[in-house]
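Hello again, I could really use a second opinion on something today. Take your time with it, there's no hurry, and the full record follows here:

___
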Amino acid sequence: MTTAQQLNTQFGIDGQLGFREDASGLVIAEISNQQATASLCLQGAHLMAWQPRSQPVPVVWLSRDAKLAAGKPIRGGVPVCWPWFGAHASEPGFASFRPAAKCLLTPLPAHGFARTAPWRVVESGTEPNGATRLTLRLEGNEKTRAQWPHDSRLELAVIAGETLRMELSTENTGKSDFVISEALHTYFKISDIGAVRVTGLAGCDYWDKVGGSALNRQNGAISFASETDRVYINSAAECAIEDGRLKRRIRVAKSGSLSTVVWTPWTAKAEKMGDLGQPDGWREMLCVESANAIDNTVRVAAGTRHKLMVEYFAGSL
């Protein structure tokens, strides 16, 4: 395993990018440039924080009860869901509006293994506009191949500055096609779930995972008064979180993604989860995820690459 000291020697950038070892033993990349601050855990290539210097509060939310531990997901930030989103097709919880395959003897983790697997740094640098770039790679090993028996290479590039751009690239290095579902499961910091709405998805169809897995069509902006778990399909549309109390608009622009997931757990589910910052930390976050899921799974042909890109912009409302 590469140490933080070795990473600083090979990839550190004076005044912009450094690596440290957390008390848990996990390695954290810290970005601090003239435009923004950010942090990323190498386990899972998990971006934990991003705050442009123009913003008085963070844009990416991390639970105050988040725990860093080897092999465990981190609550908040931007988990990488890959090579499947949600429950695996072999599991009983797999999309109830789709027939489930026979359950395997060994349960497979929800949202895939990428968010808890060790990634390695392959590149760092400074963009022409002053933003900091960090690229990580996940390649198959014995453990992951037991869950995903396909030759593939996954990379995540994070470009942190006044905006945050994330590029998730799946390369099929084998001789047979495979199908993935995926998401950048972004948790956004908001003032209060009752004070925000999401615009830009009007007219889109969505699977309502709370309302009996029904297919509906969105009318107008999305507001929140109860648990919400929706997968908007067949849309590459830009959307935005409008926060009246913070007087902030967070724009989410994407490509290579035809699904957008909007999720808030509300009280009962948040209490069962236990790591959202009790008693009311869940009210200060909203997930808007750029994805390819359900109807929008992606077939990656042998020898080709698929890229999901999303960029976040925070400005005044």
Remarks:
- The first helix runs from residue 4 to 11.
- The chain is about 5% helix and 40% strand.
- Confidence is low (pLDDT under 50) at residues 93-105.
